[in-house]
Amino acid sequence: MLLNTTHTNNENKELINNTVGPPFSILEMIKKKGVGSKRMIVDEVSPNMASILNTISDVNYGNIELRPKGILIHVTKGLQNFTWIIPYYRLVVYKVDGSSIHSNGKFIHFRNNKTFKENKKFFDKLMTEKINYDAIYNVSPI
Fold first, then answer.
1. In angstroms, what is the C-alpha Rg of the chain?
2. Which of 21, 103, 136, 138 could form a disulfide with 86, with the two C-beta atoms 3.0–4.6 Å apart?
């Protein structure tokens, strides 16, 4: 689910919290040693998400935020902010010359460069959270 989160909206906040859970508390953030990635360069997105990228040749940046039941991918387009909500049970991550995150027929590919390499620990943490979620809710691949 893709939302325009440029302006604070209680409906969007409620929808995000119901889908992927509320943000982690300060204590949980400290225990996990952070729940957000550093910004990464967006290399490519699926055609049905092309509207969130800059149309000129600007670099597009995105970052990922962990939540208890999923992740939020934040992408900035000029002065607008977009958030892609992905529950863990719909999340698929591919490691192909960077990282490609897929869900519901959409994808976003992050470029393999210095900023991506700085996020290796974050991606390890993301995969651990997904595995723990799958174990708790007994989610098996179809």
1. 15
2. 103
What are the residues whose beta carbons fall under 8 Å from the beta carbon of 15, sequence distance 6 or more?
A: 1, 3, 85
CB 138 within 8 A of CB 79: no
The H-or-E segment that residue 18 falls in is helix 10-20
Q: Could you give phi then psi for residue 68, rounded to 5 degrees? A: -60, -35
CATH code for the domain in which residue 44 is found: 2.30.29
pLDDT tens digits, 82-111: 999 999 999 999 988 888 999 999 999 998
- Residue 142 pLDDT greater than 60, yes or no: no
Q: Quote the CA–CA distance of 86 and 30 in Å, as a whole number.
A: 23
**Domain coverage including residue 67:** 2-137
In a domain, residue 142? The reply is no
In a domain, 91, yes or no: yes
pTM score, whole prediction: 0.89
Query: Number of structural domains, the chain?
Result: 1
Rounded CA-CA distance 101/93 in Å is 5
Question: What's the chain's average pLDDT?
Answer: 89
